Amino acid sequence: MKTKRDQQLLNIMSRNPDNWKGVFYFNRKDPRLVVPKQIPSMGWTLNFASPYSWITLIGIILIIIASSYFL
C-alpha cells in the first residue's frame, strides 16, 4: 500500500509542466499507467513513457479493428 507521502510525490510529478508534452504525459520515473490530467476534473490520461501504455493502446486498436472486421 502506498503511503500518503508516496501519493503526494506522485501528485507533484503529474502536476509538473515539464512532464507534459501538450496533452500527453511523459514521465519515466512515474510508475503509474494512468495519471490524472493537468486539470483533474477533465479526467485521466496514459503515461506514454511507460511501455505498458503503448501495449494497452495497441490492444484497444486491435480490438476495434477485429470487432469491425468480424461484425
Automatic annotation (TrEMBL):
The chain crosses the membrane at residues 52-70. It holds the Pfam family DUF5808. Keywords: Membrane, Transmembrane, Transmembrane helix. It comes from the Bacteria. Residues 28-54 form the DUF5808 domain. This is DUF5808 domain-containing protein. It comes from Marinilabilia salmonicolor. The lineage of its organism: Bacteria, Pseudomonadati, Bacteroidota, Bacteroidia, Marinilabiliales.
